[in-house]
């Protein structure tokens, strides 16, 4: 057979030039400033950056969950090639959960503490599909088994407080998978978990992406997490994507000074007891500064950094938005 059909070659989720702003007493906050990326079927894209970089707002913008004083002011969001950024509220509600879903950092934001797990998952099934209660419970049990929960039928009768934090997060992921969505947005879903439990969930997510074809946008501040999970990485700083590329290339040969600082702060890259390098300063104040927003903290900055930075191309889809990208030996 010749190459893939045009429909199959479309990204599962694509964002083009997304801009989300918030009105405040101090002026307009450019929370997301021209963000673009694409995620193929079965791929995991890690969206990385420190707190306040705009990662979570990007996820909320995709799902139509930004509320006043915030609003999406520009950009396109496409799900399987279909524009969804300007859908009416009712149409967006029907889309959420069925074709694109979200997993939050705290599963208790998703789970009602006074309802059994099965009751909640069955309600999520029946919100989008006209099936019997028994069929909905059956699908819920299958979803729990899919994410590696032992004795799934018994877990359906449990209340959220009867499960561990890691088990609750698996339930949240299973709920997101109920309708085999094209894309799942996961917002810091393993941050509060023990490292060993975190590793188990990451392995399950990798397996799920490979087996179901669901695309994952994995939002995190932890570069160590996405280095072992993601196929590709986008690094965000002050609302902008400053570096993107295949995960191994971004980790092994970071080009933007901010990415270099993030990679340098990963403990596994240092000897036990060695002091980790720290990045001085903080995120810049909100505004429409056209220059490199990292320049006030960057050791490589010069006067030219006050002008819009060019996008350097380092091959294989690896790019960085920088006047003075870091060079690496061939």
| CATH H-level superfamily of the largest domain | P-loop containing nucleotide triphosphate hydrolases
Q: What is the mean pLDDT?
A: 91
If helices are DSSP runs of H or I spanning 4 or more residues, what is the number of helices?
A: 10
Helix content percent band: 25-40%
Content of β-strand = 15-25%
Fold topology:
Elements: E1 13-24, E2 27-39, E3 44-48, H1 55-62, E4 70-79, E5 82-83, H2 89-95, E6 100-103, H3 117-126, H4 133-146, H5 152-155, H6 165-176, E7 183-187, H7 195-212, E8 215-220, H8 223-229, E9 232-237, E10 240-246, H9 247-252, H10 257-264, E11 311-313, E12 319-321
Parallel strand pairs: 3-8, 3-9, 6-7, 7-8
Antiparallel strand pairs: 1-2, 1-4, 4-5, 9-10, 10-12, 11-12
Helix pairs in contact: 3-4, 4-6
Protein name: ABC transporter ATP-binding protein
Keywords: ATP-binding, Cell membrane, Membrane, Nucleotide-binding, Transport
Domain ABC transporter: 13-263
How would you describe what is shown here?
- The chain has 330 residues and is of the alpha/beta class.
- It has two domains: 10-99 and 182-265, Rossmann fold; 113-178, no CATH class.
- 28% of the residues lie in helices and 23% in strands.
- It contains ten helices and twelve strands.
- Strands 6-7-8-3-9-10-12-11 form an eight-stranded mixed β-sheet, sandwiched between helices. The chain has a four-stranded antiparallel β-sheet with strand order 2-1-4-5.
- Helix 7 (195-212) links the parallel strand 7 (183-187) and strand 8.
- Helix 4 packs across helix 6 (165-176).
- It is globular, with a radius of gyration of 21 Å.
């Amino acid at each position: 057979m010749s190459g893939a059909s045009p429909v199959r070659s479309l990204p599962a989720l694509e964002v083009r030039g997304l801009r989300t702003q918030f009105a405040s007493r101090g002026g307009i906050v450019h929370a997301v400033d021209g963000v673009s990326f694409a995620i193929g079927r079965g791929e995991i894209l890690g969206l990385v950056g420190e707190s306040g970089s705009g990662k979570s707002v990007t996820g909320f913008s995709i799902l139509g969950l930004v509320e006043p004083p915030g609003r999406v002011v520009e950009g396109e969001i496409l799900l399987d090639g279909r524009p969804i950024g300007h859908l009416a509220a009712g149409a967006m509600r029907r889309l959420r959960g069925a074709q694109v879903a979200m997993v939050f950092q705290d599963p208790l934001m998703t789970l009602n503490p006074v309802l059994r797990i099965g009751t909640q998952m069955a309600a999520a099934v029946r919100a989008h599909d006209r099936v019997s209660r028994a069929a909905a419970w059956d699908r819920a049990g299958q979803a729990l088994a899919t994410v590696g929960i032992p004795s799934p039928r018994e877990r359906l009768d449990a209340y959220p407080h009867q499960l561990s934090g890691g088990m609750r997060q698996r339930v949240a992921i299973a709920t997101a998978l109920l309708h085999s969505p094209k894309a799942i947005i996961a917002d810091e879903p393993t941050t509060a978990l023990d490292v060993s439990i975190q590793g188990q969930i990451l392995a399950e997510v990798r397996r799920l992406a490979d087996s179901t074809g669901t695309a994952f946008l994995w939002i995190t501040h932890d570069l160590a997490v996405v280095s072992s999970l993601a196929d590709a990485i986008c690094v965000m700083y002050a609302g902008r994507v400053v570096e993107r590329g295949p995960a191994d290339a971004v980790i092994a040969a970071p080009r933007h000074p901010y990415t270099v600082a993030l990679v340098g702060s990963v403990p596994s890259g240092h000897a036990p007891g060695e002091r980790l390098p720290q990045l001085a300063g903080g995120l810049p104040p909100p505004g429409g500064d056209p220059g490199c927003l990292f320049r006030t903290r960057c050791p490589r900055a010069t006067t030219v950094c006050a002008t819009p930075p060019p996008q350097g191309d380092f091959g294989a889809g690896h790019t960085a938005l920088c006047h003075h990208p870091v060079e690496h030996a061939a």
